[in-house]
Structure formats: C-alpha cells, structure tokens
Amino acid sequence: MIQTLLICLLVIHVSDYSFAQTCDSCMLLRQCPEALKLASKTDPVAKQRLKEAVCGIKTVDGKRHPMICCNRFITVSERFADTETDIETHENIALLPEKCGSINGDRIIGGFYANLYEFPWMVLISHVIGRHHGKRQTQFQCGGTIINSRYILTAAHCVESKIIAGVRVGEFNINTPEDCQGEYPHYLCESHIQDIAVVKSIPHEDFKILPNVQNDIALLRLKLPIDFSFKNVAPVCLPIFNELRNISLSGKQATVAGWGITEFNRASSVLRKVDIPIKTENECRQYYDRNSDTRTSYNIDKKFCAGETGKDSCRGDSGGPLMLEEEYKDNYRMIQFGVVSHGPQQCGSSTPGVYTDVRQYMKWILDNIEPSPTGVNIVGLKYCKMWLTRVVFFVSVLYWCNAYVKQCSDCKFYRACPEAIHFAAITKDDQIKATKLKSSICGVEIVNGSRIPKICCSDYTLTDERSGVPESTGPKDSIEKKTNVALLPEDCGHIDGGRILGGTLANLYEFPWMALISHESRLRSANNDLYFKCGGTIINSRYILTAAHCVVKKKLYKVRVGELDLSSKEDCQGEYPNYFCEAHIQDIEIEESIPHKEYQHTPSKNDIALIRLKQPIDFGHKNVAPICLPVLSELRNVTLVGKLGTIAGWGKTEEGIKSAPLRKVDIPVLSTSACHEQNPETTPTQFCAGELGKDSCNGDSGGPFMMENKVNRKYKMIQYGIVSYGPKICGTDTPGVYTNVVSYMDWILSNIKP
C-alpha cells in the first residue's frame, strides 16, 4: 500500500516538472530492486531520494508509471573503487578539456629521447632546497602533468611538507634556452617556456608513507592559467569514461616520461621516455613481499606495478605520468593511467616501479578542482568559440530547453555529436535546423553557471537507405583473404599531427601519398620541365592508383612523388623558430599503365587505373608514404553519405588558374538519389560529393577522395574515391563524380604484382 501511494506521488511529481534527468540506467521503478526496497520505507529521506532519481514516465497498459535512475541506489560496496558516483556526470567534468592527449604524428617509437612536441603536458616542479647569501635556492625534483589550464597532477610525496617554488611547462632540454631538434632541412626550434607560481598544494588527505605508500596523489593549483596558444603546452587526457576506467591494464605496454635519473645514475637534461610492461597484481605483490621488512603483505590497493630490467622510472620522475594510447571520443589519444609513486632503491632493477592508479582517484580529482576565477575554464574558451560558430542557430532555440525533453540512450552535448555538427554544416535553412534541434533535445546541464542543452545524437544518424555506398563487386569476405593483400603496406595513411584543419593549402607532410602524372607529349623542351595533367596516389612502392581517363590513349612519361609546391625547388613551411624545408622529390619512369578493361569514356564507367613504376619509391624520406585502401570489411561497409571527406590536388582553383602548392578541401558525400538527380548517368560504382564553391577540378583528375577511419586501433587516412569528372564550370553547386574504390578492391588486388 505504501509503495503504491509513493508511486502515485512520483507520477504527480514528474508531471509537475518540465523535464526529468537522463541516465544510462533509466527504468521502471518496479524493475529496480534497490529502489523498490527503499520505496517500502516511510521516512522523508527515502521519499526525497526517489524523487531526485526520477528520469521519466512510461505508459504501461494505459497507466503512467515513474521511471528512475537505478544506479543511484546501488550500494557503495558495489561501486567501482572509492564510491564511484558516475564520473562522466560529475559537476566538474567540464573543467577537464575535451581536446587533450593529442598524439604527435612524429612520435619516435622505441626511442630514448622524446620528440620536441611529443609530450606537451609534461611539467617540472621546482622545490626550495635552501638559501645561499639570502637568495632562495631551487631545484627541479619532481614531475607532473597538465590536466587543465589551472591544475597540475602529481604525487603527494612531491608536495607534502615541501616548499614549492613553482612549476615549469613547455620545457624539453633544461640546459638550453632554446630547444632544437632534427637536421636540416627538418630542423625546428622552440624557445617559449612558462614558469608559473603555485597558489595551492592539494595532497590527498589520506596520504601516508608507512608501512607502505598509500594515496600518493596530489594537485597543484596555479596562480595564473597556462597559455595554450603555444604548441609545446597541452593537457593530457584522464580516464573519465567508464570504458577507460574498466579496461584491464595488465600486460599492456605503457609509456613513462621524465627528466629523472638515467641508467648512468645522473639526471637527464633532455626529456626522456621509455615503454614498459604493466604487471599483474600478483606479480607486483610477489616482488614487494620478497623485499619487505614487514610481515604484512604488500598493499596494492589503488596502485599497480610496471617495468622490467633496465627500463623504469626513477628519482626525479616522481609525480610524472604513466600513459597509454587509448580511444577517447572517437580518436586515439594519450591517456594518463598512472602517477609515478615509488620503486626499488636500485633504479632499473628487475623489481618494477609502483604507480598510483589514476582511475581510482577520478572522483577525488574532480572534487578538488575549481573553475577559474572568471567562472570560465580557460581551456574551454576555444571550444566555446568553435561551438558558437558552428551552431549560431542554437541560440534561437534555447528557450525550448525547458519545454520539451525526450529520453534516449545517447544524450550528449552538441559538440560531442559529429552527426549533428555535420547536419548543421550542410543544412542551409535555419528553420529546418531549429526544428530538428527542438525535436532532439534531451536535457540541460549547468556548466560554469550556463545552461547547456544536450541532444539525442542518434536523431542525426544517417539511415542505411541513404548510405549511397555500393556493394563491392567481389565477395565481401574474399578481399581480406586475397594473396595480394600482402602487397599493400600496413604502415599507411598516417595522419600528420600538424594537419591544418579547414585550411586551403596543405601541410608539407600532410598528404605524402600524392602523386603527379606527366605525359610524354607535354614535355617542355625549353627547360625540360614536366607538364602534369593528372594526379594519383601511392598504394605501395611500385603502384600508383589513378583514373583510367588519365592513362587511356595517353603517352605517359614519369610520375613525381614527394612534391608540395610546383613553383619552387625546395618546399618550405612555417615561421621561425618552427621553419622547416623539404627538397627531395622523386621522378620515376613508368613501366606499365593498367586501365580497367571495361573503362568507358562517355558516359564515364569504370574510371580507374593502376600505374606500375620502373623503380620502387624510396620510402626513406618523410614526404613519401602510401595511402591506406579499404581492404578490411569494416572499412568497406562504412556509410559515406553525409560524411565529410577530403580531396587534394594541384588542379584549378576557384579563380580558374592552376595552383602551384598542393591544395585541399573538405566536402560532403551526397545521397544516391541526390547524386543521380544531378548526374543521371552515374552508376552504382560511383558516388557524388561537393557543394557550392568546394569541388575538385580538372587537373585534380585521378586524385584521391579520403576519409579518416580506424585501422587496427589507429586512425588513418583511407582512400574511398578517385576524382573522375564534374561540371564544366568548377565550384558550381553541381557535385563532382568519384569512382568508388570499395567497388574495385578485388580488381586492384588482381592487377598488382610483387
């Protein structure tokens, strides 16, 4: 009877509110045993807890039943680690930046010295060690990591009972005023460091050293925000998502970095790194129980061990990070899973080091960080500007947020939904945008005092009916099993860390697979220059992928790879001190051209070809590399329609003249029906892409249409299309037509040889 009465009251309660909260465990009250047990109590505290957990109403057999967030009633012992309230919904989660842990494209895998911009979140903590002639003496004795513009994450033993002079960010080589790396023409330098005072040290309240170290974690709040406009400073990512906090670390290879004691027992002036294996709990316990002076077993709670003989973190690295590359918001980023705590007396011995498990302290971290004094997280300013630019229309419908809220399993901020962002970008009618937005709102969250709406991202997901991706002409499961798959390199399509998003000129090393095809009849005798009419892509050391119309009835001469600017002998980019040049191009003679045997010029069909080179491409230079092809079934089954792809080339620009430097543009893929409406003669093995003012043009023929996609847990550039043909007037609202590479994977593999 009491339960029935309480359920009725909850129904009335929900009816009085314009929206309910959202959660991943929203279910009928009767389906949640923990909540049902509480509903049998009569005290006002129980009633209030139930009211606060309401997330909606469901009509069953004509009756309205309340729905509640069941995970609010799970007992503390059942939660992950220390009282895990849902980290992802913590009120301070917005203080951690979304853009974090970017993996630099030039990372030196397995090296000893770090790359100049490889770990921009590394911090040096300066301690006061005494006075000399009345002057304060300081020394860098610990490390840490930037987690947002005002906070540094480090170890508690680095701050407890210590006088902290300040922190330094942006450092690489402690001994030099300017940090330089590389050799001409790839020489780059960085001179900007930031020394910032600390206003507050926050060691964990339960930190202790004896009988063994516990809760060795701390935060430092900075007096001034870090200036993130420099490339050598950026925040690391933390494991805020459930998927990251629940992964098994044992056996994984992780990276530690720092300026600590090296194997030669002296501090390193240059930032160093090492990859080490993470041990199991039993292995860790066994190592330390054998060497323990106490009779009690080593307490591994909220810690883990990592390291092997000759590879370890060491004194001076204390407080620094242990990191792994993991998926974070659909991109692979560097995530900090550990804080260097302590280890064996002999650095680099067979006894592993001990690391504070950051996953176990996420709630503590979020509980102990505060917004900037202005009430706005400095890191977030850039995102706010980007968000407002992309969704100006959002403002006009904010007043709906309290009036209409639907339920869904993927309720998220607009900026976290790529499909919604794309919808806003390609939809010209503001009224349509606003109506769509109104119907997808699922809640509102207060972030830094502002009410930010959330949307059901699935409302913007494109349906299969609109996919416009034709089936492969060969059996889907046969492509990966073809013998010639081994001729396509796995090391392909690397996404350069310095990519200029949304720009018009390409970065120097952004598209190293781009090729230029010259014709013998176009050879200029005056200065022996080559005349390039078509483009193509490197798919392995001997083959170029291009369009059939670029090779049929043409006298081909050479292929050039490694080019950026046709007007200069040396390709240079950047400004001092980040100025670098590339002078090495490769002009290679053609052994054979292989157009599709069923190629037809008018109307265009099977517009695809391969070029076999006389000599293999020398991949020892950074400006040449192969692109990835959609070999894997998951890549061939990707829905292209509505997604933005990238085209690049040296073709005609919007002014109608050839571009000397390599150019690029991002364009959307159209649906099959829209494509056929504009180009009635298109076939299922083609697709359309482009919009007003953005298109490929003659001179780009044979070049690639590319998309970033995941290959073996890393995001790489995949070629999905070949520029085939388009409207006579470049850049009109008539889209260009592309040969769909997915449809020809079997043909490509059947026509290449070692």
Per-chain topology:
Layout: H1 2-15, E1 26-28, H2 33-39, H3 44-52, E2 54-60, E3 63-69, E4 122-132, E5 135-148, E6 151-154, E7 164-169, E8 179-181, E9 188-190, E10 194-196, E11 198-203, E12 218-222, H4 242-245, E13 253-258, E14 272-277, H5 281-290, E15 303-306, E16 321-328, E17 331-342, E18 353-357, H6 362-367, H7 380-390, H8 392-395, E19 411-413, H9 418-426, H10 430-440, E20 441-447, E21 450-456, E22 514-519, E23 532-540, E24 543-546, E25 556-561, E26 571-573, E27 580-582, E28 586-595, E29 609-613, H11 633-636, E30 644-649, E31 663-668, H12 672-678, E32 686-689, E33 704-711, E34 714-725, E35 736-740, H13 745-750
Antiparallel strand pairs: 1-3, 2-3, 4-5, 4-7, 5-6, 6-12, 7-10, 8-9, 11-12, 13-14, 13-16, 15-18, 16-17, 17-18, 19-21, 20-21, 22-23, 22-25, 23-24, 24-29, 25-28, 26-27, 28-29, 30-31, 30-33, 32-35, 33-34, 34-35
Quick synopsis:
The chain is an alpha+beta fold and 754 residues long. The protein contains 13 helices and 35 strands. The protein has a 7-stranded antiparallel beta sheet, with no helix packed on it. Strands 14-13-16-17-18-15 form a 6-stranded antiparallel beta sheet.
Radius of gyration: 30 Å
Overall CATH architecture of the largest domain: Beta Barrel
| Helix content, binned percent | 10-25%
Biggest beta sheet attributes? 7 strands, antiparallel
Number of helices: 13
Q: How would you name the CATH homologous superfamily of the largest domain?
A: Trypsin-like serine proteases
Q: How would you name the oligomeric state of the polypeptide chains in this document?
A: single chain
The domain tally reads: 4
CATH class call of the largest domain: Mainly Beta
The strand order across the widest sheet is 10-7-4-5-6-12-11
Using DSSP, what is the number of strands? 35
- How would you classify the helix and strand content by structural class? alpha+beta
Beta-strand percentage range: 25-35%
